[in-house]
Specification:
With 495 residues, the chain is α+β, with helices and mostly antiparallel strands. Helix content is 34%, strand content 20%.
Length: 495
């Protein structure tokens, strides 16, 4: 079970005072009543819920700066929130903290087609960036399945990917610069429109930091010309192991497809019943492989992938004959999560990454783990980079099944690490994987990460309870911020 830091009763007792002080900074943007804050009590990991003290909805960077400075001075915890689509509990609030909702930061500020970049606010949805530049033949490459809802700020926090990240990368290589507000109200600009920036790569540090280091109020992202052509292959296999080996063979051949996705039989059935994309009903594994670029290059890659697939037992092969069919192939994959939601009372989406050569073995282990807990699973994954998304199906109304799903998820993630992989691919650590971090990192590793956190957030007020299984006070790590000669935690002995 998930445990959050013990709430500070003294802070909770000041709820009305805190809401009033923040309302003075953001006059039209503070929600403090229990009913009003309730929708902010959970994110995409809906099995966990906690109402915050208040919700603050700023409109400007200045307001964000003043809110954070006030919270820093008054020891009030802050959880930044985008669209609330996090699947790791990254935006789960605290009973003694506020939620800083960035939904009003929803404008695309500028587009520079010559230099292939766009400047956007963090509340802009992922899909909105591509829609804004589509008429000029451009797009924004990272495309999470939740792209119609997830925000750019949330993408930066989690270093989100998507079905085309194999070729075009996750958020990090498509992020050029940010405006970042620190917990004490300091406003920084990291990176910029240029390809290279002097000094430390602080932009790379912040991207994927899950809101523990600062709050993003602006992002400069890379936009790319749409490929001249794109075609997709729908490949069905009678055996999951054959499909997994096919993935490894495609990458080993030197081909980098624009997308390379897999689904197992339960996911195939659910997606086909939902979208009617023409997926083969008898397949035990389905692969979607896409090639894009110059037509001659696409022809060559499609032919090579088809040959490799047939050599690995593919018994169903269809090529998209137009753009509508290509999008239909992808529609089933992108709708896999809601499709499984139609057949399961509840499901828990696990996110881990393994070496591609281990796909078949780890999928077999996942099936065994879930079966031991008396549950079922549908597997959807970014096969090209080994990022697995087992959807563990359970019924929260049945006593013990929620705990069983959590236990199965933890075993699956440990199996990923044991196979040479990592705990997460694109969903972050949040609260979901926080207590598993020691399975991947040593205590020394986590201590170094903790010291880095302290360098940005001396009082550990930004998104506490996430990522770190334990987080020592900065005074205990000897990494303190001293302001105006006043030491934090003056009660602690100094050595």
């Amino acid at each position: 079970m998930m445990h959050m830091p013990t709430p500070d009763a003294a802070i909770i007792a000041r709820q009305a005072e805190i809401a009033a002080a923040l309302a003075a900074i953001v006059p039209d943007g503070v929600i403090g009543d229990p009913e009003g804050v309730s929708p902010y009590g959970s994110d995409g990991l809906a099995m966990y819920r906690q109402s915050p003290l208040a919700v603050v909805l700023p409109r400007t960077t200045e307001q964000v700066s003043r809110v954070l400075a006030w919270c820093h001075a008054n020891a009030v915890k802050v959880v930044a929130r985008g669209s609330g689509t996090s699947l790791s509990g990254g935006a789960l609030p605290l009973a003694d903290g506020i939620v800083l909702g960035m939904s009003r930061f929803n404008r695309i500020l500028s587009v520079d087609y010559d230099n292939r970049l766009a400047v956007v606010q963090p509340g802009v949805t992922n899909a909105a960036v591509s829609h804004a530049v589509a008429q000029r033949g451009f797009h924004y490459a990272p495309d999470p399945s939740s792209q119609i809802a997830c925000s750019i700020g949330g993408n930066v926090a989690e270093n989100a990917g998507g079905v085309h990240c194999l070729k075009y990368g996750t958020t990090s290589p498509n992020l050029l610069g940010i405006e970042l507000v620190l917990i004490d109200g300091t406003v920084l600009r990291l990176g910029g429109p240029g390809m290279e920036q002097p000094g430390l790569d602080l932009l790379g540090l912040v991207c994927g930091s899950e809101g523990l280091l600062g709050v993003v109020t602006e992002a400069t992202v890379r936009i790319l010309p749409k490929p001249a052509t794109a075609r997709a292959l729908l490949l069905g296999f009678p055996d999951v192991a054959d499909a997994g080996n096919c993935v490894a063979a495609i990458i080993a051949s030197g081909i980098i497809p624009a997308g390379l996705e897999m689904m197992d039989a339960p996911a195939i059935r659910a997606a086909e019943d939902f979208v009617h994309a023409g997926y083969p009903a008898d397949a035990q594994a389905l692969m979607i492989a896409e090639a894009d670029g110059h037509p001659a290059q696409v022809d060559e890659q499609i032919a090579a992938i088809s040959a490799i697939a047939r050599a690995h037992g593919c018994n169903h092969l269809r090529e998209s004959h137009d753009e509508a069919q290509r999008l239909l192939f992808w529609a089933g994959r992108k709708a896999a999560f809601p499709a499984v939601g139609r057949i399961a009372s509840d499901y828990y989406c696990v996110d881990g990454t393994i070496p591609r050569r281990q796909l078949a073995a780890v999928l077999a282990e996942i099936s065994a783990i879930v079966a031991r807990h008396g549950l079922a699973v549908a597997n959807v994954f970014h096969a090209g980079d080994g990022n697995l998304h087992p959807l563990v199906m359970y019924d929260a109304s049945v006593p013990g099944q929620t705990a069983a799903a959590e236990a199965a998820g933890a075993e699956i993630l440990k199996a990923c690490v044991d196979a040479g992989g990592v705990l997460t691919g694109e969903h972050g650590v949040g609260v979901e994987k926080r207590d598993l971090m020691l399975h991947q990192f040593s205590a020394t590793d986590l201590d170094v990460q903790s010291r880095l956190k302290c360098a940005f957030d001396d009082r550990a007020l930004l998104n506490p309870g996430k990522l770190f299984p334990t987080l020592a006070r900065c005074a205990e790590t000897n990494a303190m911020h001293v302001h105006a000669g006043r030491l934090p935690f003056p009660d602690l002995p100094r050595f």
